[in-house]
Design brief:
9 helices; 83% helix; mainly alpha; 0% strand; single chain
Length: 216
Amino acid sequence: TTNEDEQPQGVQIDWAAQIKAGGFMMYPLYLLGLLALVIALQRLLTSREGRLAPKGLRKTVSECLAQGDLKGAIAACDKYPSTLGNSLRFIFEHVKAGREAVSQTAGDMAARDIRTHLSRIYPLSVIASLSPLIGLLGTVVGMIEAFGLVALYGDEGGASILSDSISKALITTAAGLIIAAPAIALYFIIKNRIMKLASLVEVEVENVITTLYLEG
């Protein structure tokens, strides 16, 4: 029992107090964290299959082409507004313009829309790069203040003044990394989803053009 009582107790850290002690450099980190959350939620909701290549559209268009019903295919594109729907509608409305012209323009329309989706998640990458730098800047400022205290009080304050000041200074770097890690992970997750859907759009456009011009 005596040995157990003599064992050192773990240090209990009040994280709320530490974050509050981070100083004014925490405010831009709060803002970046909030922006990353809003952008990620918005992009997760908008960069999905229903907005780029709806399953219902692909199924309906396939059935209409099998029956030679171009009007029904155009109606399906209106029913499912999306990246794929815009490209297919252009193909159906300009089918007499020739395979090369229609294929090129429809592909350009889809690529432009995909680039727009990708550009809207780019801020997540910027936040992931910027937040650790701001956190490091906060740490440097805190360290300058800490050594300023040492220069002012000398040995009177002991090691406690320096260690407490350094602990508070390091919280900004920790906060920056906490924001950066999920932000960069979400960036690549959403980007991978968009690229997979872009491939699906490309395949579907090629299938429709093949059906209209080579099998028709």
